[in-house]
Amino acid sequence: MILSFIHQPMLKITATGFLMLLLVSHAQAQSQLKELIEISTSNYPELQAKRLETEAAQSQVRYERSDFLPSLDGSYQMVYSTNNNITGMFLPGLVMPISGPPVAENTMDFTYGSAASLLMNWSPFTFGKRESRIQSAKFGQELAQHQESLAILEHQVRFTEAYLNYWAAASMAQAAEKNKERFQTNLELSKTLVDNGLRPGVDSAQFRSLFVRSKIETLQAQKSSESFLAQVRELLGEDQKEIGIDPKLKRQFLPQVEEPMENHPLLQSSRSRTLLAEAKKTELNRSLLPDLNLWGTAFARGSAILFEGGFNEPTDGLSFSRYNYGVGFQVAVPILQFARTSRLVQKQNSLISAAEAYEMQVERSLKKDRTIAKVALEKALEAAILAPEYVQAAEYSYQALQARYDAGLINLNELVQGQADLAKAEAESIKVMAEMWKALLYYAAVSGNMDFFLQNLN
Questions:
Q1: Best exposed site among 47, 151, 175, 414 by fewest CB in 10 Å?
Q2: Distance in angstroms (rounded) separating the CA atoms of residues 244 and 414
Q3: 3-class DSSP state for residue 189?
């Protein structure tokens, strides 16, 4: 009673834990392909580069918006030069010129001079120039985002196709291994029949030859599987992740969701390129408008040169002796830029027309691809429904032939042909299932949304 009382809860705990383990492992196996796609999307270097390009485009928008803020430049300079200049030599920079008396005579004596300044420049009104630059940057950001989405879609499709090829090759290797086991079983059976005098000795020799050939075919199938696995691992962008076989790929599905073509990243990218070209044209046209700048400056000047000429101490120029302030505005009109800019506008008009034509071609191409993908998916689904019947019929025929061979009613060639038909049916079934998933993948690709493919894995 005590042992029964102790073992019963432990048995329940053990059974519950075992059941939970099975559920977890089953869930992990079911999400194998989806998990690998997520890892590949996060880790693949090309997609990381696209994400960084989008961030750069976002930074460009912030930069163009910051143009509204005034600029303030500070400078300080110290020179050691002759005093034949009006007030001593200036270095090019941000210090406004300061006039002064000419020197009385030509002299090659050296003195010090110094200057410091603050120079502010602000353009609060740009007559639409700033807004056009910001708009161009926004369309550039949208283009970068759509190109990133397109790169993600293309990579996910490329990775999934590689995984489906690997799945088909691995399944082929398993089918080859299974066929090899059949030959091994038949070889052992033929030895027994030959030893009992029910079959000629040549049957064993032929089965041995077929068994060796099946081993070679199995090795070749494993080699093909490993090659496709290497492609999958390269596209995964992760070397440590274990890549298994998703059991969900062995089943059929009935897709019912149709994604609108308007959301395809390729079409969105094309439209953003057209809008960006139009924004560039607006930016060119507005570049001919006047520039209005508000200026403000405060500067100090130090010079050892005296009013009447000459100097006392050269180092007197290191201290400031004059201070100045000033404000003002400036209007500049690019008078002679109209002709050159008009040629750039003509060039931009051609680029806009080219972008519109490309957009139209993309739309027509996607419409055609979607029609083909829909037909391919329908036919692939019909073939997938027939594949299990094909394998079942071939397996039933093989089992009947094997029973007749065991009873001595047929010869070896008929049994071998039945086994070959079964192996062919299994291989064709794998190809049909792989083509079914590829057709679904193709339809998701031309629809512009991988969720249409992934939701059928759930």
A1: 414
A2: 38
A3: helix
| Distance between CA atoms of residues 433 and 380, nearest Å | 8
One-letter amino acid identity for 200? P
Domain identity same for 310 and 413: no
Mean pLDDT of 338-346: 90
In a domain? residue 191:
no
Q: How far is CA 104 from CA 109, 301, 434, in A?
A: 13, 21, 97
Residues 357 and 432 in one domain: yes
* Token pair listed for 113: 């001079």
425 pLDDT band, cuts 50/70/90, is very high
Residue type, 282: T
Q: Cα–Cα distance between 202 and 412 in angstroms, integer?
A: 10
Residue type, 192: T
Collect all residues with Cβ–Cβ distance below 8 Å to 204 and sequence separation of at least 6: 187, 190, 191, 194
Whole-angstrom Cα distance, residue 233 to residue 163? Answer: 9
**Is residue 21, in this structure, part of any structural domain at all?**
no
- What's the pLDDT band for 22 if we cut at 50, 70, 90? very low
DSSP letter string, 366-410: HHHHHHHHHHHHHHHHHHHHHHHHHHHHHHHHHHHHHHHHHTTSS
CB distance 399 to 270 below 8 Å:
no
Closest CA to 284 of 136, 72, 122: 136
Residue type, 1: M
Q: Residue 107: CB partners within 8 Å, gap ≥ 6?
A: 82, 83, 84, 310
Instruction: Determine the pLDDT at residue 295.
Output: 82
Domain coverage including residue 308? 70-122+291-332
The DSSP bridge partners found for residue 119 are 73, 297
Least confident of 3-17, 58-72, 156-170: 3-17
8 Å CB contact between 199 and 458: no
Distance of CA 38 to the CA centre of its chain: 12
The helix (run of H) or strand (run of E) holding residue 41 is: helix 32-43
The pLDDT of residue 83 is 61
- Both tokens of 447, joined, read 């629809």
pLDDT over 90, % of the chain? 45
CA angle 330, 332, 335 (to 5 degrees): 165
Q: What one-character DSSP code corresponds to residue 408? A: T
Give the residue, 112 or 101, on which the prediction is more confident.
112
Contact indicator for 116, 76 with CB cutoff of 8 Å: yes
Per-residue pLDDT band for 368 (boundaries 50, 70, 90) equals very high
- Report if residue 107 sits inside a domain: yes
